[in-house]
Specification:
Chain A is an alpha+beta fold. The first copy, chain A, has 17 helices and 23 strands. Chain A folds into three domains: about 10-105, OB fold (Dihydrolipoamide Acetyltransferase, E2P) (Beta Barrel), CATH 2.40.50.140; about 140-270 and about 425-550, BirA Bifunctional Protein, domain 2 (2-Layer Sandwich), CATH 3.30.930.10; about 290-410, Gyrase A, domain 2 (2-Layer Sandwich). Chain A has helices spanning about 55-65, 120-125, 130, 135-155, 200-205, 245-265, 275-280, 300, 310, 330-340, 370-380, 395-410, 460, 490-500, 505-520, 530-540, 570-575; strands at about 20-30, 35-40, 45-50, 70-80, 95-105, 160, 180, 190, 210-220, 230-240, 270-275, 295, 315-320, 350-355, 360, 385-395, 425, 430-435, 440-445, 470-475, 480-485, 525-530, 580. Strand 23 (about 580) of chain A pairs antiparallel with strand 23 of chain B, so a sheet runs across the interface.
């Protein structure tokens, strides 16, 4: 053992004790007659002191020559500090060192190991092991571990069994792109890494396991966007003999438990909102309900005047941005530019200033009367001082755009408070969504989601109208979990595959095992999966997931620290019966 | 909710209650005037009863037509059984059913869902979801989850942090073969799946994380042997600022804790044995010390007589097999044949019967006197009634062969008791082992293991003699864990790589990131990894790991249930810049 204590635990109760510490030289301050070293480890910082009067001359010299991030072992006595630091748990004491040993020196680190570092993103990723020494990263990894353990213990306590499903499975073209793994022993064949253990957890239900969960890595070979990782962790759950209500209650329990134990926040019953309602009230199926700015539908109020833009629109819809009536012309123009950015895609924005004296001033004053504008204000619940922002056009995309503006304004106005938690269930998702690119309907969740009872027939007549017992758990504007009641009979699954464009042979080839399983007594079942990376980030009050992952990949899917992926030996390729085609 | 109770919880305290159960029709017994259904779920079996007097006629008919493994929902009243089954927790009651609903019918399963099934291995694997319904498999999966949770809570309680390391890493030719994953975004490049998170856990130590663990899947593309899986789970652990003693104590603590909480077995301090001692006393570096039959070295006693075979041997060594003196000639010959099998590879076996009257009868009576044989008996601690089995030849291989015979005899004589647990530490492993095939030394654990202090220089002069602070935890003849103190400075690591045949460029290319990390203040560190599949099997008193894995692969690395690996779409290959070379 290199130490008797950690650098986080000594205080006045240890005065006079001889102790041994080991850690990193965080800071060395040399005042000539006295040298202090802040010794750091995972648990904290303890001050080492060396001085002319009390320390051997050689020791003082040794302390002086200790570089930043040197790994040292110090033996000494716990003494009271002259000037105490009440902010530090160890701030009342210091160690008068009698022996100092360098366990390993260090080159000057490429960035400072401080809470606020001078290292840019790329440098921090290349030297991630140094980045992890920094409090903000270290504490996020500790936080993640705590959340994961809490999840495991909570679910285990509720009778869920953690079961490991395989990582080397079979590629299925449905959904996102698979990562594949060539098989050496089975020439010309490939495994795939799971995008989720979906079919396996369903088979576990067929196998009678009843309540399953797993914290499990999943893989998607997608073109990466910011803050998306090719490998990510799911809390994957499934239950048998349940209805949607049971699943919502169970995982509302888990989420409340986490908010309470991790964040100290008590939540009442989670609100529930249908998909249709969420989209029409917030322009999003994952609304952030920490703040209002709900949509006001102005279509019937605003049409049939002389304003052609509104008259041609499928939807005219507005939000009242609190306190923004006093925006300058320039500020309002900037907002208009913001909604016209290609990422948002609106063609323009109409606005109404709700002035303090109860009057209105709008960009469409020549088409609408004060009484019109007052009705708009009522529909958007605008109060004096607010700015009503109005978009119009095709219904769905207009909602999406106004939803983006709403989130942007929530952000700008500081309404998205990191320490406030507003969970809700969004339910009754459509079973299918139309993909304009392929001209086909795709499963909105996945092909195993059951249509609502009695709606199977509608797949022929009105596919877009079919709803599913599918639900998302939304927290602060993020989907943190999603799931559904599954199909559990072969016939329905076959109909579903057919509607998704599978030939019978393709369905058989890829999911024959599952349809077979449904013939041998499959119980009704359903489940949910949480994105752990995202969940942990939100509970931690952060927007970005990256520092909650020990060794994340960059936006090209590269690990810049170990420099992966990389070329492999030609002999390896040959063993795998493969050739490069570049 | 489909049920008010599970099939495992109802007893006399529930008499008279109306309950609802759901599960599988395990058995249907039709006596004409009365029909019983054993309803089964994960938690147990509850008997449903339908009879002429008390049930509606239609209901009786319905019960009668319920097939094996149908999923049914039953509502009824808890009543007392006429003939109680004291072996079943629910054996005092039955449910007088008032309503029965088939939730899903079932085809006749391909094998019986019973503890002793009529299904062969291959059929069970193809229909693994049915196999999992069987008690022996189900209970092993539940057991595994319990052990895993216990491990997590124990280590977390000791300050260890579970940190997820990446699955998409870099291929390194050292060690076993990697599974690789072609990168679509990085043309011509590949990720590899980790054989273990070795380098990452070391980087976490450099990053100050101090005490790390992870239950993590690892991957090895090896030619599969029975009971070896291409993907397996490790309990991976690492600590900083520790010496070997700290690691042994910590993980002896974990193992004792598991034996106590899981098996109810109290163990004293684990014996420790050097590698050299283990090999010379048991012919194995993972001796099963639940039984004796220790090696007796007969070399000096048996040489320099007229028996050429022994005289030419590097080692003459025997074990006393208890009670085997009375084996018939045929039985002894079968033993000789056993050691001559190619898997063992001995050229013959000398034996001595230690008779009840204190005399000896051997296969080499013409070369040795009774006094000689008495000395042999003393050296092998043979008692009257034992059979001394003696092998001779080159030291190392002879030990291995006799070690195999010892294990075989332990097995045959029932000395390897499943409910007995004999852990020990084997320490001081050689750093390197010579590989006759490549004519080179390889790292016995891995290239990151540190030589014992002061022995680095011996790598030049006497590589085989260099020992490491490397240790295995052995339980009942199985290595359940292995680890070492690691190298933590760049220079030593570079020397090590050189001795393992790496060019400087290769070392830089593959492990440059680690050697860089060692220059920025790497603390002394070490760790251990347990094979979870094996550990769980042994704690469960089993030899085979397969049923402790929910969805294992067969000996060709295939999942016969989902039929993976499989061919992939040519378009997928093209996107990956690959072509098949068949």
């Amino acid at each position: 053992m290199y130490r008797s204590h950690t650098c986080g635990e000594l205080n006045e109760s240890h005065l006079g004790q001889t102790v041994q510490l080991a850690g990193w030289a965080h800071k060395v301050r040399d005042k000539g007659f006295v040298v202090w070293i802040d010794l750091r480890d995972r648990y904290g910082i303890t001050q080492l002191v060396f001085d002319q009067d009390r320390s051997e001359a050689g020791l003082l010299e040794q302390a002086r020559s200790t570089g930043r991030e040197f790994v040292v072992q110090a033996t000494g006595t716990v003494v009271e500090r002259a000037s105490k630091n009440p902010k530090l748990p160890t701030g009342s004491i210091e160690i008068l060192v009698t022996s100092l040993k360098v366990l390993n020196p260090s080159l000057t680190p490429p960035f400072t190991v401080e809470d606020e570092t001078d290292g840019g993103e790329e440098l921090r990723m290349k030297y991630r092991y140094l980045d992890i020494r920094r409090n903000p990263v270290k504490s996020k990894l500790l936080f993640r571990a705590r959340v994961a353990l809490e999840v495991r213990n909570y679910l285990s306590g509720k009778g869920f069994v953690e079961i490991e499903t395989p990582y080397l499975i079979k590629s299925t073209p449905e959904g996102a792109r698979d990562f594949v793994v060539p098989s050496r022993l089975n020439e010309g064949q490939f495994y795939a890494l799971p995008q989720s253990p979906q079919t396996f957890k369903q088979l576990l239900m067929v196998g009678g396991m009843d309540k399953y969960f797993q914290l499990v890595k999943c893989f998607r070979d997608e073109d990466l966007r910011a803050d998306r990782q090719p490998e990510f962790t799911q809390i994957d759950c499934e239950m048998a003999f349940v209805e949607q209500e049971d699943i919502l209650n169970t995982f509302e329990g888990l989420t409340s438990h986490l908010l309470k134990t991790i964040n100290g926040v008590e939540t009442g019953p989670f609100p529930r909102m249908t998909y249709d309602e969420a989209v029409s009230r917030y322009g999003s199926d994952k609304p952030d309900i920490r703040f209002g700015m709900e949509f006001g539908d102005l279509t019937s109020l605003a049409q049939h005047r002389d304003f052609g833009v509104f008259n041609q629109a499928g939807l005219v819809v507005g939000i009242a941005v609190p306190g923004a009536a006093e925006y300058t012309r320039k500020e309002v123009d900037a907002l208009v530019d913001w909604v016209k950015r290609p990422q948002v895609g609106a063609s323009g924005m109409v606005y109404v200033r709700c002035l303090g004296d109860g009057t209105y001033k709008s960009s469409v004053d020549k088409f609408y009367t004060s009484e019109d504008l007052a009705q708009w204000a009522e529909a958007t619940q605008a109060r004096p001082g607010d700015l009503i922002c109005i978009l119009s056009g095709e219904t769905e995309s207009t909602r999406t755009r106004l939803g983006m503006l709403r989130m942007e304004m929530g952000q700008r106005l500081g309404l998205r408070k990191a320490d406030q938690f507003a969970p809700l269930w969004v339910i009754d998702f459509p079973l299918l969504e139309f993909d304009p690119e392929s001209g086909r309907y795709h499963a909105m969740h996945h092909p195993f989601t059951a249509p609502k009872p009695g709606q199977l027939q509608m797949l022929e007549s009105d596919p877009a109208a079919v709803r599913a017992n599918a639900y998302d758990l939304v927290l602060n504007g993020n989907e943190i979990g999603g799931g559904s009641i599954r199909i559990h009979d072969k016939q329905t699954q076959a109909v579903m595959f057919r509607h998704l464009g599978f030939t019978e042979e393709q369905a058989r080839n890829q999911f024959g095992f599952l349809m077979d399983a449904f013939q041998f007594g499959a119980p009704p079942h359903g489940g949910i999966a949480f994105g752990l990376d995202r969940l942990v980030a939100i509970l931690g009050g952060q927007e970005s997931i990256r520092d909650f992952i020990a060794f994340p990949k960059n936006n090209n899917g590269r690990d810049v620290m170990i420099d992966a992926p990389a070329e492999i030996d030609p002999a390896q390729l040959e063993e795998l019966h493969l050739a490069l085609r570049l």
